[in-house]
Amino acid sequence: MSQDAFVKLNKKESQAILKEVNPAVEGGKFNPDTVTILAQDLSFYPEYRFLDVADFSTMPAFQRFVVVGRDKCTVLNGTNEPIYELNKKIPVKLNKDNVIEYVRFFFNQVRGRSGRFTIIESIDDIAWREEPAPAVRKAIGQLLEPLELLGADAKGFRVEARMLSKSALYRVRINIGSDGQIGMPEDMELLIEDMPVFDDTLGQ
Description:
Elements: E1 7-8, H1 11-21, E2 36-41, E3 49-55, E4 62-69, E5 72-75, H2 81-89, H3 99-109, E6 117-119, H4 134-141, E7 148-153, E8 156-165, E9 168-177, E10 182-183, E11 189-192
Antiparallel strand pairs: 1-2, 2-3, 3-4, 4-5, 6-8, 7-8, 8-9, 9-10, 9-11
């Protein structure tokens, strides 16, 4: 999902949204005077919006990701469960034009037991712990490609991605059911290992 697609809500809009968001949030409440809300429409959830709700006046910052619409507010929690529940209730509407957007949304919000699978579409998507030499950076960049739709049928879609897990980069084919269920084959192709990147499983 592109940060450029987000729109910052004004104070009046934010106050109205918080009437829905605050009752659903655990661990605190957002102050309408200090909150910042970025909103993005979701083509696969018609009439719903994805919100990045944050208060940077606290330390650490208080932040939650939320999907709102039709008098329903769902707080995402880093697992696939709230997304799959939304997929059933709304329900999710996937097609060839928006399935890649859905894949980006899903992996941006879901963290597995062993860490996050991060979609890498360009060299600038990589959070380097140590900046590689220019020649190495160029060689890695040549291995990267944007998400690609490989095919679609009545059962769902197949998308190819480059994904970073811990310090290893893989080429992965992702299966997406028409109901939004995500599955990946176990035989992912390893492209590079021991990359000098931040490992979110260790917080460093």
